[in-house]
Structure formats: structure tokens, C-alpha cells
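INTERNAL AUDIT FORM
Audit reference: QA-55
Scope: verify that the stored structure record matches its stored sequence.
Auditor: D.O.
Record contents follow.
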Amino acid sequence: MGLPMARRLTTAGLDCWGLDIRPLTEFGAFAARMLPSPRKMAARCPVVLSVVRDRIETETLCFGEDGLFASTPYPKVFVICSTLAPVDVLEIAARLPRDVVTVDAAISGAPIAAEEGTLTVMMGGPPDTTEALEPLFTPMARAIHRLGPLGAGMTVKVLNNFVAASTVVAVRRAFSAADSLGLDWRTLRDVMASSSGGTWFGTNYERISWANEGWEKGNTMGILEKDVKAYLTTVLSTEGRDPNAFETAVLEGLKDMPPVDR
């Protein structure tokens, strides 16, 4: 997600720099704007958007030996775009220097939406800061929602992602069933798109780069499993109840997802 987001920002004329552990050869023309360490980014960028995988990677980025906030100078605005549990956002924010403003700005739409500038952004944080950040997200988003205090954006995101993960399991199983019943899954997809079975995942199946993946811990299906667990953490912390059979079935369905050759 980070690379197409960065490209949209630079195309819009913003002074955007990147940081990643992957080889520079994977970043094409943007490689010239990739920085070698979090400390280099901290020294150059007053506003940082974090699009790493999970809480552990977020904490390493922030508080590791060479982290953004390991010493001065450090960014004054830290924006968490990764999908974390809302409690994770609050706990990380509490560890940052007191003069740092934290915003959660969860993003939805997959890499294709980042490339096309049609992401949905769900923001939580101080109203003056979220308002000031809107122009930053405008080049890469078609919908920007300012939802309330810190953690509000991530609360909406984990609820949204639970529904999305449920549809991923349902659509993949329906497409597989179509094949076994002698029906072209594309025909099913086209009918579903204009009827009650229409979903973002099903309608855009051929455009979503990870849609036919099988579950692996490090791939997008694995990230979806992480997102469902973030939802469960949030529900448990607010409602105090254990996951029910449906929620457990969604997790099991994601882990049982075989790859598909399309």
C-alpha cells in the first residue's frame, strides 16, 4: 500500500519520502526517494504516515534502536495507517513524546485503490490536526471520514474489515462451488454484482492483486486474519464476550483458503 500512496503524493507535488526494509530495486523510479533508516526519516519528515503490517512493526518503527522517536529530532505528527486494534493505537500514542500529535487514519481499498487514488480514509484524532491532514490524503482518496477522537478511525476500520473478511471467505467459497457445479465463476460474479450477492471483493475480484491467494502468515490473507483478530480484541475489550461460532468460522475460513489459479 505504501508505494502507490507515495507515488500519488509525489505526483500531486508533495515532498514525500519513503522507508522500507525491502530492496531498492522493488521501488522503481521512487527508489531515489527511499531513505535508509527511521532516523533519517525522522530528521527529514515532520509528518510520518506509518503503513507497516501490525503493532510489533509499528513499535519497532517508533521505538527501536534506530526508531523514529529514539532520539531528537523526531516527527511532530505520527499517523497510523496500519490496521491495529484501537487499544494498540492508544497505547502506542501514550508512549510517544508529549509534543507529538498522533492520528489514526486507517485506509481501505487495497493497492489498486491506492494506485487509482480511490482509497477510503477513516481518521481519528484532534479535530484541528485531522482537518489539516485532509489535503495530504486528498490525492490518494475518494472518501475521507473524520470520525472523532484518537482510536475512532481504527474502531470503524476493524468493524469494516470484519465484514470484508467475511465476504472474502463467502465469495471464494461461492466461486469454488460454481466451478464444481459446472458454472463459470465469472458468470456468477457478473450476476452477483447486480444483485443481492454483490460485494466489493467479488465485483473487483480480477482487479485485486491478492484475491486468489491462499492463506500464508506473511501474505494479504494472513493480514486479513490479523485484522479479524484486531476486531475480536476490540469486541472483547468493549463487550466482554468471547467470539461466537460465526466469528470463529471466519478465522477458520481464512486459514483454510487455498490458492486459486485464475
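Auditor finding: record pair retrieved intact. The radius of gyration is 19 Å.
Action required: none
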